[in-house]
Amino acid sequence: MMPMLKCAPDNQGADMRRFWLKMVAATAIAFPAAAANPANPANGERLAYTMGCVSCHNRDMTGHLVEEDPERLVAWSTNLSRRLPGWRDADIARALRTGKRPDGSDIWVMPVHSFHWINDAEMRDLTAFLRSVPPTGVDHPPAVFGPRARAAIASGKAKPPAGFLAEDLARAPRPLPGHGEGRRLALLICGDCHGADLKGYEGEGAPANLLVASAYTLPDFARLLRNGTRADGSASGMTEYSRDRLFKLTDAEIRRIWNYLRANAARGTKLPQ
């Protein structure tokens, strides 16, 4: 008959327990638990530039008058230094990605179709930066809609960004294998000016269809983004945006955007004639 497993005497059992406790402790020291990636507020500040937060809300996030047309809209950007301490991190993420405040009301002046593309790591860093800004300044009045804006809203022609979000996301260029990050960055950084489809707008001085980027070499494209200078040395219409915002883009981000835009052009998309 197979012998039964024997239990060690009490003193030997205690020795064994001490032995295994030491082994567990040694293992914990040798293999410490992986810490969650901490937020990087310095990168968050950089994102606040490249995404345009600083352009609309100032470096100290106090906000300023961004639109003054009594017929259409008079609007101040929010003093985020005073508003955000009362918001949860999830509230900030929801506002950027969907255009909704914590109470469910709409944010009318914000490029939600671009901010929707911020990833979780960027959101964490940006939130850490926004939390680091001390409250200062004053709260600004809510937006005032003029008669033309009120008529457009009543007719359904004008909506808050959240009202167009599903349509805007559907207009985004189709994904390209191997260029997912470049596409995401182009939509996040360039989409607020060049549109949810990156095709720009018609009219003199309007943001161009970004297919034009396929004609640039990488060094020329980097110079265009960072200081607004075209390949021939002339100033472009984006000079102000480049010097206020895009100069903070990293080499890797510029390269990914450029590679994506060239690949998007190469798959047969044509510029309008």
Automatic annotation (TrEMBL):
The keyword Transferase does not apply. Residues 1-35 form the signal peptide. Keywords: Heme, Iron, Metal-binding, Signal. GO terms for molecular function: electron transfer activity; heme binding; metal ion binding. InterPro entries: Cyt_c-like_dom, Cyt_c-like_dom_sf, Cytochrome_c-type_DH. Residues 39-134, 177-265 form the Cytochrome c domain. PROSITE patterns: CYTC (PS51007). This is C-type cytochrome. It comes from Sandarakinorhabdus fusca. The lineage of its organism: Bacteria, Pseudomonadati, Pseudomonadota, Alphaproteobacteria, Sphingomonadales.
